[in-house]
Design brief:
This protein is α/β, with parallel strands linked by helices and about 375 residues long. Helices cover about 20% and strands about 25% of the residues. It has five helices and 16 strands. A six-stranded mixed sheet has the order 10-11-9-12-15-16, with helices on both faces. Strands 3-1-8-5-6 form a five-stranded mixed sheet, with no helix packed on it. The chain has a three-stranded mixed sheet with strand order 4-2-7, with no helix packed on it. The longest helix has 26 residues. It is elongated, with a radius of gyration of 30 Å.
Length: about 375
């Protein structure tokens, strides 16, 4: 299924029920007095993250969602029934923005996480609330308040562990096919990848991570050029970036026509786009993967890779692979798994240091 990662919906919370004007009329009770009950509260609209969903495509067919209205109050001090809340399920990783104010309301990053997006209206008061010593038969009741109405923009940011960066035809789709069960389309022309692809890399049982193949970037992507501007958001959440580069100088279509870019120039161009889009993305761990080594003799490929690393002054890990033949790809996956294992250990150690009484209490076994 093609991933739909943006949608706009309208949500309507239920109106509150009206208060009732009523009087107690029973035999032998001539002065029963006011007994009109309150209206019920309107239902609210909630969003709930569901890990079983991976697209916003359903919201292309249904755009309006309305919670139930509260019932009106009744005589004999009977309150109206409150309207049922409406819960809308969305994929984990959905960012919710109020279109009118452009304010981010919430970010659903965990399965089961809920977010109130429209509050139901409060029920109106019945006339029993308005009796007093000077007004023993009030004929006043309040109407229910209207529920909130909002237009929301839903934006899905993939929750992948590893994001693949690179120019069109750098070999990202071939790479993800080589290391996971994902089968993205591969062809010898720019922008083969039109939608992000997710692949699960399973090193061994219970040790795996998710890798995302993002459509290729070009110069000006952060300003809207090409396809990459639509999907840069997806690499914002990843914990590790793999920067794939074609080892040979490649000709690509830039903003102002064709450009011949060396491997080092490809890396620097992508860095400029990341810096313009979100400077914090350059703070993430980023490993350099020099692809298509099979197109050169081994000594030539090694010399070219070392020259690129030296020209960039690259200090983070780097690798030389052939995604097509899968040569050198699996060792990278093992290193990535070790990377996440270390992160998990550091997180556990930090939690233990923050809560020493949990592990060191007298009652601890």
């Amino acid at each position: 299924m093609k991933l739909v990662d943006e949608a706009e919906i309208n949500v309507f919370a239920g109106n509150g029920g009206n208060g009732c004007v009523g009087f107690r009329r029973e035999k032998f009770i001539p002065l029963g007095g006011p007994d009109g009950g309150d209206g019920g509260n309107g239902g609210s609209v909630w969003l709930e993250a569901d890990e079983n969903l991976n697209t916003l495509v359903d919201f292309r067919h249904q755009r309006s969602f309305r919670a139930q209205r509260g019932e009106n109050g009744m005589g004999r001090q009977m309150y109206g029934k409150g309207g049922d809340d409406l819960t809308i399920t969305v994929p984990v990783g959905t960012v919710v923005t109020n279109v009118e104010t452009d304010e981010v309301i919430g970010d659903l990053t965990r399965h089961g996480q809920r977010l109130l997006v429209a509050q139901g209206g409060k029920g109106g008061l019945g006339n029993m609330h308005f009796k007093s010593s000077v007004n023993r038969a009030p004929r006043k009741a309040l109407p229910g308040l209207p529920g909130e109405e909002r237009t929301l923009r839903l934006e899905l940011k993939l929750l992948a562990d590893v994001g693949l960066l690179g120019f069109p035809n750098a070999g990202k789709s071939t790479f993800i096919r080589a290391v996971s069960a994902a089968t993205p389309k591969v062809a010898d022309y720019p922008f083969t990848t039109l939608y992000p692809n997710l692949g699960v890399v399973s090193v061994e049982p219970h040790r795996s991570f998710v890798i995302a193949d993002i459509p290729g970037l070009i110069e000006g992507a952060a300003d809207g050029a090409g396809l990459g501007s639509l999907f840069l958001r997806h690499v914002q959440r990843t914990r590790l970036l793999l920067h794939l580069v074609d080892m040979a100088p490649m000709h690509y279509e830039g903003v102002e026509g064709g450009v011949e870019a060396s491997p080092a120039e490809q890396v620097l161009a992508i860095e400029r786009e990341l810096r313009k889009y979100d400077p914090g993305m350059l703070e993430k761990p980023r490993w350099l993967v020099l692809n298509k080594a099979d197109l050169m003799f081994e000594d030539e490929a090694r010399a070219t890779a070392e020259a690129v690393v030296a020209e960039l002054g690259w200090t983070q890990p780097w690798y030389m692979v052939s995604a097509l033949s899968r040569e050198g790809t699996w060792p990278i996956m093992l290193e990535i798994q070790h990377f996440f294992d270390r992160l998990r250990e550091e997180q556990l150690e930090a939690e233990a240091a923050a809560h020493p009484h949990v592990a060191g209490s007298p009652d601890a076994g």
